[in-house]
Amino acid sequence: MPSHAWKPRLRRSSAPLYAAIVDALAADISAGKLRAGDRLPTHRELANAVGASLGTITRAYAEAERRGLVRGQVGSGTFVNNLTDRDAYSPMLDRDRIDLGPTATPIMSGDLGHCALAAALAELSSRADLGALSGYQSHGGTAAQRAAGGRWLASTGVVASPDEITVCSGAQHATVMLLSALATTTGVLVEEVTYPGALGAAQWLRLPTHPVAVDEDGLIPDALAQACRSSGAKVLYCTPTNHNPTTSIMPLERRQEVVTICRKYGVTIIENGALAPLVSGAPPPLSALAPEATYYIGSLSKATVPALRVGFIRSPLEARRSLEIAAGATVWSGSPLLVEIATQWIHDGTAAAIRDARRSEAAARQTIAAEILKNHPYLAHATAYFLWMRIPEHRRAMELLEQAAARNVLIGPAHVFAARAGSAPNAIRVSLGAARSRNELERGLTVLAKLLDESPTSPWSAMP
């Protein structure tokens, strides 16, 4: 397609037309329909194509340039920026090993997120109110920031007014705040394999954890009911959508069963939704099914750029004051600079555009994994950042990890996700997002596939 013939596919939205044009531009860049150096239509050509005024197109191109998507050259036109220039950004410094371990956002050199961040920082540096943004702010965020948080959470099905939102410094900060505010000495119910940050927070707060069995659909209702009865714990921490480490997405019927059980036993739910923005069309969150008993954690770090340490808690209305106190006690004030960027990105569509780019890259990497690991069953959905693989009984997962490490490939061990020490499943979690390129990911996964194809080498692993 000649670049000058580009015509945006505008989605139905309440956003202004100029913003819809920029969103369409970002989507086509992410999908590869527009490439670095492509010349975009002139202002008049695009105005005629979409039936807009020249002023609207001028504003759209200015906004696209602010986000780092395009560059304008006087007398030549408007061109798509090079978002893959390796010299522009180098996020990984140690390239001796291929790291398939951490829950990493699949960031490529100079990608959309970092171009947008560079543009946002440049804009902040010239703002007249930079002094105010360099100081402290209210503990739980301003009204405008809380409204933006509600809008971001709404994209994952959470229904919340600004008065039910508390701004925090990322999902981990939210986890510590909520566990300290809600849990008692009876401890907290957790999935038997779960986010290590929650386990670390519980340990730091000296809270016992009570593992609940899971299957490919998440928490098993009968196991949850039994754990409620036996533990006496009144708080459940769980991840129904895009579970870490298994990537499971709990079906609606199962979610309804979990809510029914928690209501029966008076259990408050902490729902981790940090990875939920990566899933399109997931069932309603627990927060929508039981708003009176659920605290929802949302974040921008996983869906945009990790440096944007901004999160949002949706809570019952009467709880927000206590959460503001908790925020003040833990960080006093979040960074106004970061929260301002987050607020702007949510309102102008940058956050959604980067999220869509992350989904697209994750899907491409899942396709690579499906081809290379096609002979080895695992769990994953199409836009997950990682996959969960149970290792056959005749092999030891730790032995496999050691063999991979000897070949400079690092993989996530299951024991870091195990809620009960010594009970880790014979499994591995393979991150697809940490590799700096798809080629590097292919090399790492090829090493893993070859190891999985090999016969066990140690006497222990050969035992029946």
Record the strand order, biggest sheet. Answer: 4-12-11-10-9-5-6
Main β-sheet description: 7 strands, mixed
- Assign the structural class, choosing from mainly alpha, mainly beta, alpha/beta, alpha+beta, or little secondary structure: alpha/beta
Fraction of residues in helices? 40-55%
Number of helices: 16
- Rg: 23 Å
Q: How big a fraction of the residues is strand? A: 5-15%
Gross geometry: globular
Provide the residue-averaged pLDDT. Answer: 88
| Separation, N- and C-terminal Cα atoms | 60 Å
- What's the total number of strands? 15
Task: Give the low-pLDDT segments.
Answer: 85-95, 457-464
Structural description of this entry:
This protein has 464 residues and is of the alpha/beta class. It has 16 helices and 15 strands. The strands form four sheets. The protein has a seven-stranded mixed beta sheet, with helices on both faces. The protein has a four-stranded mixed beta sheet with strand order 3-14-15-13, with helices on both faces. Strand 5 (188-191), helix 8 (196-204) and strand 6 (209-212) form a beta-alpha-beta unit. The longest helix has 23 residues, at 350-372. The radius of gyration is 23 Å and the shape is globular.
Characteristics:
disordered C terminus; 7-stranded mixed sheet; 16 helices; 4-stranded mixed sheet; 464 residues
In short:
This protein is of the alpha/beta class. It is 40% helix and 13% strand.
Give the topology, please.
Elements: H1 17-30, H2 43-50, H3 54-66, E1 70-73, E2 77-80, E3 98-100, H4 112-125, H5 130-133, H6 143-154, E4 165-168, H7 171-182, E5 188-191, H8 196-204, E6 209-212, E7 214-215, E8 218-219, H9 221-231, E9 235-238, H10 252-264, E10 268-272, H11 286-289, E11 294-299, E12 311-314, H12 320-330, H13 336-348, H14 350-372, E13 386-390, H15 397-406, E14 409-413, E15 427-431, H16 438-453
Parallel strand pairs: 3-14, 5-6, 5-9, 9-10, 10-11
Antiparallel strand pairs: 1-2, 4-12, 7-8, 11-12, 13-15, 14-15
Helix pairs in contact: 1-3, 1-14, 2-3, 6-13, 7-8, 7-12, 9-10, 14-16
